């Protein structure tokens, strides 16, 4: 392609201007504080990792990894999630720290080849990992914390859908034994939430009853406690039964947390990460077509780093949450202190005093006759402007307060 | 090389465990809040940029840039500073926003080929850019803000050395006209602060008096106001004189800010960034061999992005500051709530209540007889431990409070 122009940046990445940064930082701060109240301690891992370790272990498909070679010829990736790096840390720096580990993070992650179609190549995630606890209580804790985190972020309305990869795997193994291709096509439809396609494939498989209606029936397995009961009747497979029992226990613990109203059991749900081994969940906000949080249990990942352990966790899609969260009124505005050179000491001292008191202050020297005229005009109308709620504008920028030193009649301080 | 082991990460990058993250986050928060009080608004730019734009414009030498190819064959770099990206934003997204722009950032930046010798390939910088103001007041503002930022970060003792690239360029042009090689060697020595090497080169040039003593005399040009006076006498070159006059004015404004005690004029100082065009400065903390802040004026950078403007700014070396800042006592510890299953609802409700009040709480279900025994023993000694100031340890982890539900004699809440 032709050389990029000076003002261009790679497609798929963003600049965040002050207004957006204020909002993003507020979400980050509130969510991390929430995670801290649940006993999760924050860690940071590097932006770059080895392809052969974290790159391969991550759930991101190979062609979506950002790769580069270091000068020794080793392939490096830009991290595509923080779950695999945390598994590495749990097995190295933290290997003497007893389980359970409760860790939180806020980080940018990367996807190559997502430059087209408006998808983002770099975006923020805020999440937790609970490592070393296989119980339904641990899964319920991360779901309840995901709900608390979405509330802390300010997401007004959302629903969490919970499924279990063991149920679908068990059911498909029972009803379509050895037919890997058919199983994969059906799962692909469920992952895309394409129920029409799922029914089409079912028809094309010319299955006998009751297999066909069993497989079609799962599309209706969405709801509360009653879904667990229905699912137990639907499948006789042991793995599927174990999965359902785990979900029933999890549902009870969610009741003890008082958060069942935010949760829906959805047995058609497949987590989109290949490393999930048990419960998976996704959270949807009103009026948004994509999840704002996703998580699940991954009991085989840590073994790849040399310290086998069950684990469960989630990541908020913080960049997407930015779109559904209301703007907050700015806490306090900026005061402009203008001064003529002979009054510099008094002006800068006043600025220092106000900054120490927590006020945001900009200082500007007034040098030219033109600038001086503009300041004098502004000072004359200042009282009227304040009365009418009109903004103070100087050199094209809006301020919430104005103090002048050595300009105009009455010096103000 | 051989395949990296599972627990390995690329050399030159770091994992930050919770203790270090707490400290790093505190520095980040306090410094950004300080910059906000000076009217600087925070922006965020992407981790990746085009090599042909930001990569070339940055002050980092080509072989130290982390490069990768995107799928279109365009060369991408991991940002090596945030000054060049901000120049890009000032010329694109912010091109209608009037000068002066006051922008702040906190970001990780990258250096390739620094993996050896313990140097870091990824590290944090926290900085500001003041764009569109060529005055000594602007230079003094960023130096005074650098001082306030180091204080906000908690750096106990530091000194800022201020120089001017125009002085050395002017002096060398006057004393060594046309001898580019000799000029470069002398500058290289100054950049490395190698005064012995500088004198050796001077000797080897067999210069006549008073040229030789003039060039040797600059090594003594370190101090306050008096240095400006000496420098004015030392060189008759116009550019050198202009530079010195600018520094004298800057020194006056620093006096108005009341911060001269932290500053040293050092005319041998050369900023290590090729884009500096005027005043440059570096800040040194006690007991640290490398600068904790560096900055300067770069009046030609924005033109490369299509919106010519003078600019000045600095970056704190936040990762290094981490090493000189004291640990702070943790604000409040974590309470452990243990429960037997029948008491789950009461236990989780108590946890919820405490979290709402801002407390950090971990909950654990007690399942096995062994766990139950450990909890009962802990409860029996709890009062004594608290009296003796001994920590509460459960499953190898230390807590600052303990509440049990459904275990032990008297249920506590």
Automatic annotation (TrEMBL), chains A, B:
Subcellular location: Cytoplasm
GO cellular component, one term: cytoplasm
PROSITE patterns per record: AA_TRNA_LIGASE_II
Pathway named in the protein's UniProt entry: Amino-acid biosynthesis; L-histidine biosynthesis; L-histidine from 5-phospho-alpha-D-ribose 1-diphosphate: step 1/9
Chief place of localization: cytoplasm
Aminoacyl-transfer RNA synthetases class-II family profile domain: residues covered: 22-342
Keywords: Amino-acid biosynthesis, Cytoplasm, Glycosyltransferase, Histidine biosynthesis, Transferase
GO molecular function, a single term: histidine-tRNA ligase activity
GO BP terms in the entry: histidyl-tRNA aminoacylation; L-histidine biosynthetic process
Protein family per UniProt: Belongs to the class-II aminoacyl-tRNA synthetase family. HisZ subfamily.
HAMAP family, A to Z: HisZ
Subunit structure: Heteromultimer composed of HisG and HisZ subunits.
Matching PANTHER family: HISTIDINE--TRNA LIGASE, MITOCHONDRIAL-RELATED, HISTIDYL-TRNA SYNTHETASE
Other noteworthy facts: This function is generally fulfilled by the C-terminal part of HisG, which is missing in some bacteria such as this one.
Family matches, as NCBIfam families: hisZ_biosyn_reg, PRK12292.2-4
Function: Required for the first step of histidine biosynthesis. May allow the feedback regulation of ATP phosphoribosyltransferase activity by histidine.
Protein name listed in UniProt: ATP phosphoribosyltransferase regulatory subunit
């Amino acid at each position: 392609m032709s050389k990029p122009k000076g003002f261009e940046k790679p497609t798929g990445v963003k600049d965040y201007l002050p207004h957006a940064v204020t909002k993003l930082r507020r979400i980050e701060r509130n969510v991390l504080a929430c995670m801290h109240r649940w006993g999760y301690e924050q860690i940071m891992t590097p932006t770059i990792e080895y392809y052969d370790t974290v790159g391969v272990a991550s759930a991101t498909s190979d062609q979506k990894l950002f790769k580069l070679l270091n000068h020794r010829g080793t392939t490096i990736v830009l991290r595509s999630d923080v779950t695999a790096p945390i598994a590495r840390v749990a097995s190295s720096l933290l290997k003497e720290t007893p389980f359970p580990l409760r860790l939180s993070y806020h980080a940018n992650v990367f996807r190559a080849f997502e430059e087209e179609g408006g998808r983002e190549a770099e975006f923020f995630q805020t999440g937790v990992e609970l490592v070393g606890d296989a119980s339904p209580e641990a899964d319920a804790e991360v779901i309840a914390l995901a709900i608390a985190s979405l509330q802390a972020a300010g997401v007004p309305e959302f629903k969490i859908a919970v499924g279990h990869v063991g149920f679908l795997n068990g059911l498909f193994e029972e009803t379509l034994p050895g037919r890997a291709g058919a199983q994969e096509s059906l799962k692909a439809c469920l992952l895309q939430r394409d129920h029409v396609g799922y029914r089409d494939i079912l028809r094309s498989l010319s299955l006998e009853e009751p297999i066909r209606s069993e497989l079609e029936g799962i599309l209706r397995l969405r709801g509360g406690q009653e879904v667990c009961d229905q699912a137990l009747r639907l499948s006789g497979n042991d793995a599927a039964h174990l999965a359902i029992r785990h979900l029933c226990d999890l549902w009870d613990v969610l009741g003890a947390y008082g958060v069942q109203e935010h949760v829906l059991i959805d047995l058609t749900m497949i987590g989109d990460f290949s490393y999930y081994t048990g419960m998976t969940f996704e959270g949807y906000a009103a009026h948004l077509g994509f999840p704002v949080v996703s998580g699940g249990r991954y009991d085989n990942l840590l073994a790849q780093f040399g310290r086998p352990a069950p684990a469960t966790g989630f990541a908020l899609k913080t960049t997407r949450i930015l779109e559904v969260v209301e703007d907050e009124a700015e806490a306090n505005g900026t005061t402009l202190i203008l001064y003529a050179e002979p009054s510099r000491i008094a002006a800068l001292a006043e600025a220092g005093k106000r900054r120490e008191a927590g006020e945001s202050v900009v200082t500007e020297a007034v040098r030219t006759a033109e600038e001086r005229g503009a300041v004098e005009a502004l000072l004359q109308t200042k009282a009227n402007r304040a009365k009418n709620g009109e903004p103070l504008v100087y050199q094209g920028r809006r301020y919430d307060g104005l103090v002048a030193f050595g300009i105009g009649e009455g010096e103000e301080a």
